[in-house]
Amino acid sequence: MNTEKQNKDELKYNEALKKKISKLKKSRNAVIIVHNYQRDEIQEIADISGDSLALSQAAVRTDADVIVFCGVQFMAESASILNPGKKVLLPVMEAGCPLADMITPEKLRAKKAQYPGSAVVCYVNSSAEVKAESDIACTSSNAIAVVRSLKEKKVIFVPDKNLGRYVQSQVPDKEIILWEGFCPTHIRVQEEDVIKTKNIHKGAEVIAHPECNPEVLALADHICSTGGMFTYVKKSPLKEFIIATESGMLYKLQKDNPDKKFYLPTPHLVCANMKLITLGWVAQSLEKMVYEIKVADDVRTGAKKALDRMLAVTGEKSGAVISGY
Ligand code: 13P
Predict the structure, then answer these.
(1) Residue 243 neighbours by CB under 8 Å, 6+ apart
(2) Which of 65, 106, 164, 188 has the most CB atoms lying inside 10 A of its own CB?
(3) 316 pLDDT band (50/70/90 cuts)?
């Protein structure tokens, strides 16, 4: 079969799946929530897309009965913790987060015993059990504000060391105790990749996610969450940007800014877990109502406290219902 025919067939197949998903979504009163790293075709069917904070906020506001979460486990888990009355579905159960797996509640308890009187801040890229052991959660877009909001001077920050280090540089009056976790996708960006790409695209600005290595962050003109990247690019008078984060970001950046150009510093910026979700799995998810993400009540209560406290820092309260999603 020639490639042109293959592409046409694939397009036809995807269009049929999109129609099926749209019908099922109505009949289930479902909302499709999509992270910025998802495949292009999944971003195309999103009712809401955004960064981790925006998606947690959206999960709180929705009045749909079912949330189909196109992201990874910890994201769907957070939606379920914030919305115990709703069915939260993750289309592919294996879509995990290696960073979240770099810490366990037992290891965190041991760390807390080492530093009594410290506050514990957990990045949302963590399990519900780890959240339940923490005082407050944070995302990459509110980590600085969350740490600043604490009365404690000493802060155990888990599990991403690069984000923790970046927060420390912005909040020097706190003493941040780091955890040795990292995102295997973001650490693939090397200093040389950024320098090489900048040499080719001389006028381009470098925008980096705070999960990147410190040497990469030192080369960045702007450091922010995935959601922050959209706002920054839209406002910028510049026309070219080097984007140091997962490749899925380029879909919406390019769509919203057709007159601007975006480059990845390396082609290896692909999170295999994020890419597990396909249109076929979303259709199956709605058809069979799988895979439901539930958190046991004893864990959920503690984890919700950490998430609620985070949302309060950014002016959001769980339980509020705003229709329209
Ligand atoms: P954002 O909250 O910036 O979208 O980051 C999510 C994430 O998991 C980065 O690896």
Answers:
(1) 207, 229, 249, 250, 253, 262, 263, 264, 265
(2) 164
(3) low
**β-pairing, 87-89 with 66-70?**
parallel
Q: Whose CA is nearest to atom 8 of ligand 1?
A: 125
100-178 against 186-268: fold identical: yes
The average pLDDT across 186-191 equals 98
Which residue's alpha carbon is nearest to atom 4 within ligand 1?
51
Q: Tell me the DSSP string of 95-107.
A: ---TTGGG--HHH
pLDDT grade, residue 1 (50/70/90)? low
Helix 297-313 vs helix 52-61: angle between axes, to the nearest 10 degrees? 110
186-268 has which fold? Rossmann fold (3.40.50)
pLDDT in tens, 242-252: 999 999 999 99
| Percent helix / strand / coil, the chain, rounded to 5 | 45, 15, 40
Query: Is 100-178 a domain of CATH 3.40.50.10800?
Result: yes
Residue ranges covered by each domain of the chain:
3-95+276-294, 100-178, 186-268
- Total-model pTM: 0.95
pLDDT at residue 29, as a whole number: 97
Ligand 1 binding pocket, CB closer than 6 Å: 36, 51-52, 125, 139-140, 183, 209, 211, 225-226
The CATH number of domain 3-95+276-294 is 3.40.190.10: no
**How far does residue 224's CA lie from ligand 1's centre (Å)?**
10
Residues 295-323 have a mean pLDDT of 80
Single out the residue of 52, 182, 270 nearest to residue 69, CA to CA.
52
- Summarize pLDDT for 251-303 with one digit per residue, the tens: 999 999 999 999 999 999 999 999 999 999 999 999 999 999 999 999 999 99
CA of 128 to the centre of ligand 1 (A): 17
